[in-house]
Write a sequence for this structure.
């Protein structure tokens, strides 16, 4: 277990998930409240110590890439800057030509391994990256329109502001990834795993998302107008101010989800599980 103070957590940006944790705490009481944090303890502990002391110390047994991803998630820019330098994230960017060489040299049936690479702002449109290993890769601002990323692994990847419009993402794993403000309009996200993903402001209009898992995903202010979310697992997801106009959530599981101030004109909720859901819509 990890014990800290509210003062330590309040030292980060107001938009950080740490502040969401503080907002969820009960009124002051005699006993110290406990909160379950579904993150990797070994990767979060160096961040807490940094907020306490101003010094970053990552034990040799702990992955610096893992700490870097958590620093991005919890929005601690000082740690992000330090670790991006140490991990070589700010080094020379990989080129499209180099990616093509890797794809051509990869034996048939073997997934291309691009784990942790800096692919930010790279043009990867229409490439076949199916089954690729992109865990913890930096794809921020990358152009992936109409690319094939089916069954790819992008766990804990940085995909903010990337353009994935029309991409094939079926079966891909985006768990714990940062997808803030990405464009995924008209994409195929059938059976995607986006557990604990940050998808605030994502454009998903007209996307196929049937059977996807969005457990505890943050979809605040995302645009899902006309999206197909049939049979999706959206338990405990946050869809505050999300545009759900004409979306189809038939058979979806929304237990514990928050749809406060969501736009729900024409939203189809037939046979959906709405237990413990906040369905406060806009006036």
């Amino acid at each position: 277990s990890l014990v800290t103070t509210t003062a330590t957590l309040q030292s980060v940006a107001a938009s950080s998930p740490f502040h969401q944790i503080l907002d969820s705490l009960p009124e002051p009481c005699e006993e110290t409240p406990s909160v379950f944090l579904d993150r990797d303890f070994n990767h979060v502990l160096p961040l807490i110590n940094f907020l306490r002391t101003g010094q970053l110390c990552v034990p040799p047994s702990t992955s610096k890439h893992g700490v870097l991803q958590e620093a991005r998630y919890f929005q601690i820019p000082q740690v992000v800057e330090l670790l991006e330098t140490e991990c070589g994230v700010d080094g020379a960017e990989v080129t499209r030509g180099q990616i093509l060489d890797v794809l051509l040299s990869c034996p048939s049936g073997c997934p291309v391994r691009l784990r942790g690479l800096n692919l930010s702002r790279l043009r990867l449109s229409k490439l076949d990256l199916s089954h690729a290993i992109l865990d913890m890769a930096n794809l921020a601002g990358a152009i992936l329109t109409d690319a094939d990323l089916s069954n790819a692994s992008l766990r804990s990847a940085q995909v903010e502001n990337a353009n994935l419009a029309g991409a094939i993402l079926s079966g891909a794993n985006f768990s714990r990834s940062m997808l803030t403000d990405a464009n995924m309009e008209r994409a195929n996200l059938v059976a995607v795993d986006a557990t604990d993903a940050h998808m605030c402001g994502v454009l998903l209009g007209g996307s196929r998302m049937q059977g996807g898992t969005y457990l505890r995903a943050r979809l605040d202010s995302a645009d899902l107008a006309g999206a197909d979310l049939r049979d999706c697992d959206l338990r405990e997801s946050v869809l505050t101010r999300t545009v759900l106009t004409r979306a189809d959530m038939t058979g979806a599981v929304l237990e514990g989800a928050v749809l406060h101030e969501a736009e729900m004109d024409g939203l189809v909720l037939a046979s959906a599980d709405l237990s413990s859901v906040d369905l406060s819509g806009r006036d």
